[in-house]
Design brief:
Number of helices of chain B: 6
Largest interface: B-C, 36 and 35 residues
Mean pLDDT of chain B: 91
Number of strands of chain B: 18
Radius of gyration of chain B: 20 Å
Mean pLDDT of chain A: 91
Chains: A alpha/beta (about 250), B alpha/beta (about 350), C alpha/beta (about 475)
Shape of chain A: globular
Low-confidence stretches of chain A: none
Oligomer: heterotrimer
Structural class of chain A: alpha/beta
Strand content of chain B: 35-45%
Shape of chain B: globular
Strand order of the largest sheet of chain A: 6-9-10-3-11-12
Number of helices of chain A: 10
Helix content of chain A: 25-40%
Structural class of chain B: alpha/beta
Distance between the termini of chain B: 43 Å
Radius of gyration of chain A: 18 Å
Strand content of chain A: 25-35%
Number of strands of chain A: 12
Chain lengths: ~250, ~350, ~475
C-alpha cells in the first residue's frame, strides 16, 4: 500500500530525512520509533503533505500513485489520515460542523453523495459513544479548551469516522494518562482491518503494549537504522536508543 | 512665531486631550533656553556642550536628525546649549548616569550608545518652570539602555519629547513616572530599525490633580522586533490622565511582537481618563494585542480585605499599590526602582482615595 | 450548530461568480438634471410633492452644506469627488406609488427576484416585510396591511412626510442634526427616499422589517433616509440589504439612519452591506459614506446594531448609540471584510449619558489582498453616567502580507463608578489551522471560509436567522482567491 524509497526531505533547506525506506502492506500495523529529533514528525507531515516539507529526492508511492504530487486534501480523500500530535484549535467552528464539513468534502471528492446533517449526526453519535466523546464536546469549538485526552480521543473519532486506508498516528500517546491511553488504544485496535494499514509513530514503548505492531522500525538521524518484530520495542526499552543506534552503525 | 512653529490646539488629533496652545496662553513658550547638566560622568564617556562651536562628527551625525512633532521642531529651532553624550563601543557603564534639567524654556540633549555599549540613565526635572525638552537617543547594534525619568509635580507646562532609534539587537527599557503638571506631555517616538531590537516601556501616573499625558509611537520598521508597553494611571481630584499609544508594524515586518496595556483607576467624580491604544498593522505574520481598562477599585477585592479586618482606607491604598506594582517592577535598577516607589508613595498620600 | 452554517460552506464552493449582483436592469429612467444646486433640491422636493416645511428644511441643509468641508480624518483615500458630476435623482419612469404589486413594472419585480428578494407576498420569506428602494424611489412595500392591523407604520419616507407629517416633524433630524457632518448634511438636502417605521406603544412588531436598497442607474448617487421610532415598550427588528451593478465608475451612497427608542423600547437594526466593491484592480465600486445613529431616549431602552460589511470600494460608517435613558443598552456587532483594494473605516460610538447604561462592542475585521481595514470607535462616559459599563472586543484577521488592519479606539471616562474594558488582537489565519482542515479533506477556499466564519461567529449569531445564511455565504465569497 505504502512504499517509500530513498526519501530525502528538507525543512527550511535543512535535510531532516536522509534516505528513508519503508514498505507497509494493507492489514499491517507498523511502528516507527526513534529518539527526539530523529525525523518522526517530519515523516508524518510529509506523508500528509504539509507545506514546507520538501521532498528533495526519492519517492512515496501510495497504492501505486505518487503521493508527493497530491495536495493534502486529495490525500485525505484518498484515505490518508494523520492523527496529529498537537491537534489544532479553530475558534468559533463547532466540532460537529467541522466533522460534517470534512466528511462531506471527502465524499464529494470521491464522487459520493453528501450526507445530510441528521445522517452525519447519527453516524458521529454512534462512534463517539465508544470513545467517550460527549455530545457536549461535539458542540464546543474544535479542540478549543479540550484537555490533552479529549483532543486525542477526537482525533481517533475522526479516524473512525473517515475510515482511512492509511492511518498515521503521530505520538498519539503523548500527554495521556494510563486510562486515556487504554481508551485510545482500544479505539485504534477496533479499527484494525485487512484493508487498512497503520503507521504508529511513538517515542515510548508503552503505547505498543496496547497497540501491538506487526513490525517495528527505528528511525535515527533521518534513516531507518533497525527493524524487527514487536520484541524490538522491549530491547529498545532495555538498552535505550543510543545503544541500538550505535549497534546499528 | 511662524506658522510652521505654531503650537497645537486640541483640534490637532494628536493633541486632542492636551490643549498646549491654551495651556501656554498668548505668551507661548517664549524664547528662553532651559539648562541641562550631567551628574558624575564616568571615564570614557564623551560629553559635548551643544553651545560650543566645532561640533564633533558624532554630534553632527545625529543631532536633530530624528524627526519629531511640531513641538520638538520648536525646541530644535530655539534651544541654545544643551548636552550631547556618547558611550563608546563596547563600554558597559555600571553606575547610573544622571541628567538634570532646570530653568525655563527650550532645551535639547543627545545620547549616543555605540555598538555593544550599555548604560543606565536617570533623568530629573526641576519643577515649576515651563519647559520644552527634546531628547534624541541613538542605539547602535547590541546597545542597551535602561532609562528612568521622573517628572515631578508642577504648575507649569512640561513638554518632554524623546526620539529614539534602535539598530539590530539593541534593547531599550524605560520607565516614566509622572505626577502631573498644568499640562504634562511625555511623548516618545521609537523606531525599531534593526532585527532583534526591543523596546519595553512602562510608566505610572499618580495624579491628585493636574494633567499628565503619555503619548507613544512605536514603529516596527523591520521584522523580529518586539515592544511591550504597560502604563498605569491613578487619577483623583480634578485630574486628567491621558495615554495615547500607537504601534505601527510596517509592511514585511514579519515576526513583530507587540503588547500594549493601559489601565486607569478613576477615584474622583471630577477626574478624567482618556486612553487611545492604537494599532496600525501592515504585515500579517505578527502578534499584536492591546488592552485598556478604566474603572474604580474592584469592589470584591476591597470587600475581601475588609472582611479580613483591614480598614477601608488602608485596604484602598493596598489595592492602589497593587494596581501600580507590575509597572514598577519593570524598573531594572534596584536603587532607581526604590526611588520611584518613594515618589509614588508620596504622591499616593496626596491622593484622595 | 445551525443548518445555515453548514449550508454556507457548501454554497461557497459552488458559487462561480464573485459578485453575483453586478447586473444592470434596463429600464426607462427619469432623472434630475446633472449636478447639485438649489434647483436640484427643489426638483427632488417637487417630485415628492412635499410640503413647504420639508423643502425649507432641505434648502437650509443645502446652504449649510455649501459652507462645509469634506472630512479627511478617516483612513480612506480616494480622488476628489466632483459633486456636480452626478445625478441626484433617478427613478424608473411611470412609477407613481402603486397600490398593488400587480401594477409594479414586471422588470423591477424580476430585478428583485434575481437579487433574491421576492416582492410577491405569497412568495416572500415568512414573516419579512420588504420596502424596495430602486435608485431614488421606493418601488414596492409589502405586508403593509398586515402591519397596519398591528398599528405599525412601515412605508417609504416620502409617503410618511405626506401622510404622517407630525411624526416626521417630531423626530426627523433629532438624532442626526441637519448640521451633523458633511455627508449627513448633503443627505438632508437631497435625500429622495428611504424607509419610515413607527411602532406604537407596547407593540411588538409582528414580523421582521426590511429595506432592500438597489443602485441601478449609472452616474447616480443614492441618498436614502431612514427613520425608525419605537414608542414606549415597542420592539422592532429591521434589516437592510444593499447591492449595485458592476461599473467602472465610482458611485456615491450617502445615507442617514436615525433610530429613536423611547422608554423600554428595543430596536434591532441589522445590515448586510454588499454594494459593488470594485474589481480586483480597484476599479469602480461604491463610495459608502453613511451616518447611522440611535438615540436610547427612554429609560431601559435598547438599540442593537449588527453589520456585515463586505461591499463598497470605500466604507465610512460608524453606527452609534447615545445612551441617554437610564439603564439603556447599546450594542454594536460588526464584521467588516475588505479584499482587493477596498478600504473600510468603520466602528461605533457609545455615548454614556444616563445612569447604569451598558454598551457592548464586538468588532471583527478581516483584511485580504491590498485592502485597508480600520476599526475606529469611541466609548465616552459622561460625569452623570453612574455605574456605566462597556466591554469592547476588537479582533483583526489578516490574510496575506499586503493588506493592513488598524485599530483606533478612544476611551474617555469621567465617572469613577464606570467600568470600561477594551481588548484588541491582531492575527492571521494560522498555517496549522489551514493544514489541519486540508488534512481532513477540506479544500483551501472552503477552509478559509470555515475559519473566517468561526472568527466572526459571535457577530453572525446576532443576525436574524433569515439573513444569517446570506451573510455567511458572503463572508466566504468576499474572500475567494485571497489565499493561494
Amino acid at each position: 500500500m505504502l512504499d517509500i524509497k530513498n526519501l530525502h526531505v528538507a525543512v527550511d533547506g535543512k535535510e531532516i530525512l536522509k534516505g528513508l525506506n519503508l514498505r507497509v502492506e494493507a492489514g499491517q500495523v507498523h511502528a516507527i520509533m526513534g529518539p527526539n529529533g530523529s525525523g518522526k514528525s517530519t515523516l508524518s507531515y510529509v506523508l500528509a503533505g504539509r507545506a514546507g516539507y520538501d521532498i528533495t529526492e526519492g519517492s512515496i508511492s501510495y497504492n501505486g500513485e505518487d503521493l508527493g504530487a497530491l495536495p493534502p486534501e486529495e490525500r485525505a480523500a484518498k484515505g490518508v489520515f494523520l492523527a496529529m500530535q498537537y491537534p489544532v484549535e479553530i475558534p468559533g467552528v463547532t466540532t460537529m460542523m467541522f466533522l460534517k464539513s470534512a466528511l462531506n468534502a471527502q465524499r464529494r471528492s470521491r464522487g459520493e453523495a453528501e450526507m445530510d446533517a441528521i445522517g452525519v449526526l447519527k453516524t458521529v453519535r454512534k462512534k463517539a459513544a465508544a470513545l467517550n466523546v460527549s455530545e457536549e464536546m461535539l458542540k464546543r469549538a474544535l479542540n478549543v479548551g479540550f484537555s490533552g485526552g479529549e483532543k486525542k480521543r477526537l482525533e481517533i473519532l475522526q479516524m473512525a469516522l473517515f475510515e482511512p486506508k492509511l492511518a498515521i498516528l503521530d505520538e498519539t500517546d503523548s500527554g495521556l494518562d494510563i486510562d486515556a491511553l487504554r481508551l485510545v488504544a482500544e479505539g485504534v485496535n477496533s479499527l484494525r482491518s485487512p484493508d487498512r494499514a497503520m503507521l504508529v509513530i511513538t517515542h515510548y514503548q508503552r503505547l505498543l503494549d496496547y497497540i501491538v505492531p506487526d513490525r517495528i522500525h527505528v528511525l535515527a538521524k533521518g534513516r531507518i537504522v533497525a527493524e524487527g518484530g514487536k520484541e524490538l520495542a522491549l530491547e529498545l526499552e532495555a538498552k535505550g536508543y543510543e545503544q541500538i543506534v550505535k549497534d546499528a552503525a | 512665531m511662524t506658522a510652521a512653529l505654531a503650537l497645537p490646539t486640541r483640534r490637532v488629533e494628536e493633541w486632542k486631550y492636551s490643549d498646549l496652545a491654551r495651556a501656554l496662553g498668548d505668551a507661548g513658550f517664549g524664547d528662553a533656553s532651559a539648562r541641562v547638566s550631567a551628574g558624575k560622568v564616568p571615564a570614557g564617556v564623551d560629553v559635548f556642550d551643544l553651545d560650543e562651536p566645532n561640533r564633533p562628527d558624532w554630534v553632527k551625525a545625529h543631532y536633530g536628525k530624528l524627526g519629531g512633532n511640531s513641538v520638538s521642531a520648536v525646541s530644535l529651532a530655539k534651544a541654545r546649549g544643551g548636552i550631547a553624550l556618547r558611550i563608546p563601543k563596547g563600554k558597559i557603564i555600571e553606575d547610573v548616569l544622571s541628567l538634570n534639567f532646570s530653568g525655563e524654556g527650550h532645551v535639547r540633549a543627545l545620547l549616543v550608545l555605540e555598538e555593544g555599549a550599555a548604560l543606565t540613565l536617570s533623568e530629573e526635572f526641576g519643577a515649576g518652570e515651563a519647559r520644552n525638552a527634546g531628547l534624541e537617543i541613538v542605539l547602535a547594534p547590541n546597545a542597551r539602555l535602561d532609562h528612568v525619568r521622573v517628572s515631578p509635580i508642577s504648575d507649569a507646562v512640561q513638554v518632554e519629547e524623546i526620539s529614539l532609534t534602535l539598530a539590530r539587537d539593541a534593547v531599550y527599557r524605560a520607565h516614566f513616572a509622572n505626577f502631573g503638571a498644568k499640562l504634562s506631555r511625555t511623548e516618545l517616538a521609537i523606531a525599531l530599525n534593526g532585527e532583534g531590537a526591543e523596546a519595553h516601556l512602562s510608566g505610572v501616573s499618580v495624579l491628585s490633580d493636574r494633567h499628565a499625558d503619555v503619548t507613544t509611537q512605536v514603529s516596527h520598521a523591520v521584522g523580529r522586533t518586539q515592544s511591550t508597553q504597560l502604563f498605569k494611571k491613578v487619577v483623583s481630584g480634578k485630574a486628567q490622565a491621558v495615554y495615547q499609544g500607537k504601534v505601527v508594524v510596517a509592511h514585511g515586518a514579519n515576526g513583530s511582537d507587540s503588547r500594549q496595556t493601559a489601565k486607569a483607576l478613576l477615584l474622583d467624580g471630577r477626574a478624567e481618563a482618556d486612553l487611545k491604544p492604537e494599532l496600525e498593522i501592515f504585515a500579517d505574520d505578527v502578534k499584536c494585542a492591546h488592552g485598556a481598562a478604566v474603572g474604580d477599585l474592584d469592589a470584591d477585592s476591597l470587600f475581601y480585605l475588609r472582611a479580613r479586618g483591614i480598614p477601608e482606607k488602608e485596604a484602598r491604598h493596598l489595592l492602589i499599590h497593587a494596581f501600580l506594582e507590575d509597572a514598577l517592577t519593570d524598573i531594572a535598577n534596584a536603587d532607581l526602582r526604590e526611588s520611584v516607589r518613594g515618589a509614588v508613595s508620596d504622591a499616593l498620600n496626596r491622593v484622595s482615595a | 450548530m445551525s443548518s445555515a452554517a453548514l449550508e454556507t460552506k457548501e454554497t461557497v464552493a459552488g458559487l462561480g461568480e464573485k459578485y453575483k449582483y453586478g447586473f444592470v436592469t434596463d429600464i426607462e429612467m427619469e432623472r434630475a438634471p446633472k449636478g447639485l444646486s438649489e434647483d436640484t433640491v427643489r426638483y427632488i422636493s417637487a417630485k415628492k410633492s412635499e410640503p413647504d416645511w420639508m423643502l425649507e428644511w432641505r434648502l437650509g441643509a443645502f446652504r449649510r452644506w455649501l459652507s462645509m468641508k469634506e472630512p479627511t480624518w478617516a483612513r480612506v483615500h480616494y480622488p476628489a469627488i466632483d459633486y456636480q458630476d452626478s445625478y441626484y435623482y433617478a427613478a424608473p419612469k411611470n412609477t407613481p406609488k402603486k397600490q398593488s404589486l400587480d401594477e409594479v413594472d414586471p422588470k423591477l419585480l424580476e430585478t428583485y427576484k434575481k437579487l433574491g428578494i421576492p416582492l410577491h407576498e405569497q412568495m416572500a420569506l415568512a414573516g419579512v416585510a420588504v420596502d424596495a428602494v430602486f435608485d431614488s424611489v421606493s418601488v414596492a412595500t409589502t405586508f403593509k396591511e398586515k402591519l397596519n392591523e398591528a398599528g405599525v407604520i412601515f412605508c417609504p419616507i416620502s409617503e410618511a412626510i405626506r401622510d404622517y407629517p407630525d411624526l416626521v416633524k417630531k423626530y426627523l433630524g433629532t438624532v442626526v442634526p441637519v448640521t451633523d457632518n458633511f455627508f449627513a448634511t448633503l443627505n438632508s438636502a437631497v435625500f429622495s427616499d428611504g424607509t419610515f417605521v413607527y411602532v406604537p406603544k407596547g407593540v411588538r412588531c409582528p414580523m421582521e422589517l426590511s429595506t432592500y436598497f438597489r443602485i441601478n442607474a449609472s452616474e447616480t448617487g443614492q441618498f436614502e433616509r431612514t427613520l425608525i421610532v419605537a414608542d414606549e415598550g415597542a420592539y422592532v427588528s429591521y434589516l437592510e440589504g444593499c447591492t449595485a451593478p458592476k461599473r467602472d465608475e465610482n458611485q456615491l451612497h450617502a445615507a442617514v439612519v436615525e433610530l429613536v427608542a423611547l422608554d423600554n423600547a428595543e430596536i434591532k437594526y441589522s445590515t448586510v452591506q454588499n454594494w459593488y466593491p470594485g474589481d480586483e484592480n480597484g476599479l469602480g465600486g461604491i463610495y459608502n459614506f453613511v451616518t447611522k445613529r440611535g438615540d436610547c431616549r427612554g429609560a431601559r431602552s435598547k438599540i442593537s446594531w449588527t453589520q456585515v460589511e463586505t461591499g463598497s470600494a470605500i466604507t465610512w460608517k460608524y453606527p452609534s448609540c447615545i445612551l441617554r435613558g437610564d439603564e439603556s443598552v447599546g450594542e454594536f456587532y460588526s464584521i467588516a471584510i475588505a479584499n482587493n483594494y477596498q478600504q473600510a473605516d468603520t466602528g461605533t460610538k457609545m455615548i454614556h449619558l444616563g445612569k447604569n447604561t451598558r454598551s457592548r462592542i464586538i468588532s471583527k475585521g478581516i483584511s485580504a489582498g491590498k485592502a485597508q481595514n480600520t476599526y475606529r470607535g469611541l466609548v465616552s462616559v459622561y460625569g452623570k453616567a453612574e455605574n456605566a459599563r462597556n466591554f469592547t472586543q476588537c479582533d483583526s484577521l489578516l490574510i496575506g502580507g499586503a493588506c493592513g488592519a488598524h485599530t483606533v479606539p478612544y476611551i474617555e471616562s469621567r465617572n469613577p463608578s464606570a467600568r470600561i474594558e477594551h481588548e484588541a488582537t491582531t492575527s492571521k489565519i494560522a498555517e496549522d489551522q489551514l493544514f489541519y482542515c486540508l488534512q481532513r479533506g477540506i479544500g483551501q477556499e472552503e477552509a478559509v471560509a470555515l475559519i473566517v466564519n468561526g472568527f466572526c461567529k459571535e457577530v453572525l449569531q446576532q443576525l436574524p436567522m433569515e439573513f444569517a445564511v446570506e451573510a455567511q455565504k458572503l463572508v466566504g465569497i468576499s474572500l475567494e482567491g485571497s489565499v493561494g
